[in-house]
Design goal:
about 160 residues, alpha/beta, globular
């Protein structure tokens, strides 16, 4: 049975991590009233969402609303419903909302193409411009909070040692 969530009025959309730098698990979480869904993702997927949202927001008037402090905290339980695969992003001018679609990673065939499966998990949510801007700021902080770069080779330094 697949997971399907649709949030027309999102209370919160955030990203958080579990684990120490170098071994963090990234989690996206959407909440609306008593509904909540968490999706496991990669650091690069989080950064890609931020990059796209920044481009969309740059073409729009500045947001007037902002989420409440604490709305961007990852809430427990944070068990992932699925692992993130394809991401769809868009903007609906009629409702002045940013659309985010998160789909479960699919199995690949011999050619490396995703096998179509109607039973994959799916999350669709609409954010206000303020929620999207706040997500971007928070997500950038989370992504950058990883391992510091080595001053010599510029690769991330491992907390257990660095062979530079």
């Amino acid at each position: 049975m697949s997971v399907f969530f649709e949030f027309d009025d999102v209370t919160a959309f955030t990203v958080g991590t579990i684990g120490r730098p170098g071994a963090r698990t990234f989690l996206l979480q959407a909440r609306a009233d008593d509904k909540r869904v968490t999706v496991k993702c990669e650091k690069q997927q989080t950064a890609a969402i931020v990059q796209y949202l920044r481009k969309v927001l740059a073409d729009l008037p500045p947001p007037e609303d902002r989420p409440m402090p604490g709305a961007l905290e990852l809430r427990e339980p944070a068990d992932a419903a699925f692992v993130l695969g394809p991401i769809g992003l868009g903007y609906d001018r009629a409702s002045d909302r940013v659309l985010i679609q998160l789909e479960e990673v699919g199995e690949l065939d011999e050619e490396g193409e995703v096998i179509e499966d109607d039973d994959r998990g799916h999350v669709r949510l609409y954010l206000s411009r303020g929620q999207a801007a706040a997500f971007c700021e928070h997500a950038e902080d989370i992504v950058e909070a990883g391992r510091p770069a080595c001053q010599w080779c510029n690769f991330p330094m491992d907390p257990d040692g660095h062979a530079c």
